[in-house]
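pls design
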């Protein structure tokens, strides 16, 4: 069996990936305690000790607002560490799957972004993730770079859990309604990735190497996302949702107004992806107690904002 090194096992996508990859290889899943991406020497040492056939890297610095004041750390984790992973993978003859974000775009386009659209990140987080994409691709090893957006799940710090908590605590919530994207369940990302791994026996072929957008299908606003979450509540008492403009809730890091990504290239190569609302319904039906996550960066006074 192929040996697969999975980073970020405690993160939203990493947690789901560890479970979806079972049976597809010898999975070595590591968290920050085993491989701290801010320590590049440790990254090298772990990879050389594990000697994987494939590295899957969902781990990242994701504190979007905090990154504005921690640009060096964000760049080390999101750009330099992936470069080191790619270099070590190439030396071993291994492949790599690396995850990126809609934040590589400025959000000014009127239609969904394709992989061929020019990137123009408007915050430190986006710049660091774009640098990571380019660093991996520059090494020249067999690789996939999978951009996703608006990721949520039943664990961690994300929009879904925050809205669920606030819906229990407050009679009304103010939600940004002029930013648009596709809420994407972390399990959707993990299952689609596992499908690729299964189809190729843990290898990335030359014909597959490249950049793909991987998001749920359809689109909504943060307000629409919140409305769908609240509508699923079994309690008859549901908070009122007020739609607000993003300008009414300034944050340290600017966010793109349009985070819609076209996943057509991925679908044509690797198969279908679910609609965002259908995936959300499945997620909400999971028999898991609502998490008590801290509010994501950019949440205050009941105004829910995008989170990572």
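designed seq:
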């Amino acid at each position: 069996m192929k040996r697969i090194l999975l980073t970020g096992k405690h993160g939203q996508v990493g947690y789901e990936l560890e479970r979806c990859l079972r049976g597809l290889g010898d999975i070595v899943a590591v968290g920050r305690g085993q491989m701290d991406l801010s320590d590049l020497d440790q990254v090298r040492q772990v990879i050389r000790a594990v000697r994987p056939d494939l590295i899957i890297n969902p781990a990242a610095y994701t504190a979007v607002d905090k990154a504005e004041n921690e640009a060096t750390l964000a760049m080390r984790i999101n750009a330099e560490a992936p470069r080191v992973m790619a270099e070590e993978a190439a030396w071993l003859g291994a492949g790599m799957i690396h995850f990126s974000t809609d934040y590589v775009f400025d959000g000014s386009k009127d239609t969904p972004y394709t992989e061929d659209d020019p990137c123009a990140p408007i915050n430190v987080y986006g710049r660091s993730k774009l640098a990571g994409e380019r660093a991996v691709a520059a090494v020249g090893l067999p690789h996939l770079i999978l951009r996703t957006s608006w990721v949520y799940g039943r664990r961690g710090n994300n929009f879904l859990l925050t809205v669920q908590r606030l819906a229990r605590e407050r009679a009304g919530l103010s939600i940004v309604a002029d930013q648009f994207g596709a809420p994407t369940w972390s399990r959707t990302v993990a299952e689609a990735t596992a499908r690729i791994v299964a189809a190729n026996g843990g290898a990335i072929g030359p014909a597959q190497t490249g950049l793909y957008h991987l998001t749920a299908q359809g689109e909504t606003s943060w307000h629409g996302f919140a409305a769908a979450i609240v509508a699923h509540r079994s309690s008859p008492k549901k908070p009122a949702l007020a739609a607000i403009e993003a300008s009414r809730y300034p944050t340290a890091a600017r966010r793109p107004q349009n985070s819609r990504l076209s996943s057509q290239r991925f679908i044509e190569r690797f198969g279908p992806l679910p609609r965002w609302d259908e995936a959300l319904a499945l997620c909400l039906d999971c028999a898991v107690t609502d998490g008590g996550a801290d509010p994501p960066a950019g949440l205050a006074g009941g105004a829910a904002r995008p989170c990572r």
